[in-house]
Write a structure and sequence with these properties.
The structure holds two protein chains of two kinds. Chain A is mostly helical. Chain A contains seven helices and no strands. Chain A has a domain of 91 residues. Chain A is extended, with a radius of gyration of 26 Å. The chains are: A mainly alpha, B alpha/beta.
Chain lengths: 207, 255
């Protein structure tokens, strides 16, 4: 049984993957079974989310038993999680109480984190030269500054037409060319990873 | 006309996948008879491998963050690379008392990470190292995921972080937490804006296809080397095709 199960897993994964892939190339032939398999995958993903939330509870339940000041955060998380589940269960995902929790807790916290993110990026940019003293770091920083200055009106001078034109050129010519080169590499890497999984060489499912 | 073009595009895409598959199988089965692959030096992998060895000696942990790319969508490719890295890290740290930790932002990735760790420990005969809570779903939105992963980097005695998967700008928070806890942060992602952010924040950044070469650099087997050879050939083929198209357009033959 210990040997049969991994092989069965691999066969199911490979056959399902090939059907879904061929469904994209030959829509008339396999689109029916392809959409069935994708809808199953969506249901399984939803169930996996529940397993993930259970994992979150387990991790923080374990942390509440440990000594130290950080366990209070795990207690707060668990209480918040259960209150949210109860409220969302009773009032529905778009109910007024659920939206109240969303608008008064989640949105302000995430907006605050976005503000922290802006400061982190500014700080990282400022110390970049000391961390990576290379010529392309200088080029990176000059480009960032030019795009920033070209995006906002200058103090007392208003918007500068040449800087604005330079920003547009930088973002539409060299940046797009570089991004396309990177995307080409990402696309090829994704195809290679997909091929390894589709023919069962990489088995991230315990096969 | 449009349906005909669409059908032709479908067949071309199918041929492209067949070309990739054919080259991959050729290099996989006949690669031994070909000259050995010389992998160019990528500083990120060199430093990470060194840090893995040091972590095992010092009894510290490795942290692999797999991002929040769902495997039902395109970003899943980068997440699968993250799973390969997790497997290699678990193998490298199998002698250590501190097994690696993984954080994810997707339910399916959480299960796959647990499964990867369990399979790895099972194949090594060290099942006692497996603890399902070493894989953590830290959040489902980008910022909640990052916020949830920060305590892992800060509190779990982490020596090196490998961020491999689909991320957005929130990856800066993880890289900054790594810098503050004085642990090495190596990161690669499929998202272009996040790569720019990583250049400014991470110790070592994997750009473009470098992330997908992780398996080959971390010794995941001949299939990963065969994939690199296949990618190199197809890349030159595509570059030639793009230049040919540009010349045709310059001459006014293509509209």
């Amino acid at each position: 049984m210990k040997r049969i199960l991994p092989i069965t897993n691999a066969v199911i994964a490979v056959v399902s993957g090939l059907i879904v892939l061929f469904g994209y190339f030959f829509p008339g032939l396999l689109s029916g079974i392809q959409s069935v398999l994708i809808s199953w995958a969506i249901i399984i993903a939803a169930f996996a989310l529940l397993v993930g939330v259970f994992n979150l509870v387990m991790v923080h339940w374990k942390k509440t038993g440990t000594e130290g000041s950080n366990s209070i955060y795990s207690i707060v998380l668990l209480i918040s999680l259960f209150i949210t589940i109860i409220v969302a269960g009773l009032s529905g995902p778009t109910g007024s109480w659920t939206l109240w929790i969303f608008n008064n807790f989640q949105v302000p916290i995430e907006v605050s984190l976005l503000a922290v993110l802006a400061i982190v990026l500014l700080y990282a940019g400022a110390r970049l030269l000391s961390r990576k003293p290379k010529w392309y770091t200088i080029l990176f920083l000059i480009t960032v500054l030019l795009v920033l200055v070209g995006s906002a009106p200058l103090f007392l001078a208003g918007e500068s037409a040449p800087l604005s034109a330079l920003r547009i050129w930088l973002s539409q010519v060299p940046a797009i060319a570089g991004a396309r080169g990177l995307l080409l590499g990402v696309a090829l890497g994704t195809v290679a990873t997909g091929i390894r999984i589709l023919i069962g060489i990489d088995r991230p499912y315990g096969g | 006309m449009a349906p005909v073009i669409s059908t032709v595009q479908d067949y071309l895409a199918f041929l492209f996948v067949l070309l990739c598959l054919g080259l991959f199988l050729f290099f996989l089965y006949f690669g031994r008879n070909l000259p050995k692959v010389n992998l160019r030096n990528i500083e990120a992998f060199r430093r990470f491998k060194r840090e893995v060895d040091l972590a095992v000696e010092a009894g510290k942990r490795l942290h692999i963050s797999l991002g929040r790319g769902s495997i039902n969508e395109l970003p899943g490719g980068a997440a699968f690379v993250g799973l390969t890295i997790l497997d290699r890290c678990a193998r490298a740290a199998s002698n250590s008392d501190q097994p690696p930790m993984a954080t994810t932002g997707d339910g399916v990735l959480t299960i796959l990470s647990q499964d990867t760790l369990q399979s790895t420990y099972h194949s090594l005969g060290t099942e006692q190292h497996y603890d399902p809570t070493n894989v953590r779903l830290t959040g489902l939105t980008p910022l909640s995921y990052a916020a949830g992963a920060l305590p892992t980097i800060r509190d779990e005695d982490i020596s090196a972080n490998f961020l491999a998967g689909h991320f957005g700008a929130e990856i800066a928070l993880l890289a900054e937490a790594g810098a503050r806890s004085q642990s090495l942060t190596v990161a690669g992602t499929d998202a272009i804006p996040a790569q720019a952010v990583l250049y400014a924040t991470a110790d070592e950044t994997l750009l473009g296809e470098e992330l997908y070469a992780a398996g080959a650099y971390l010794g995941a087997g001949p299939a990963h080397l065969a994939c690199l050879r296949m990618q190199d050939i197809v890349r030159w083929f595509l570059v030639a095709l793009i230049i040919f198209g540009a010349i045709l357009k310059l001459l006014g033959i293509l509209s």
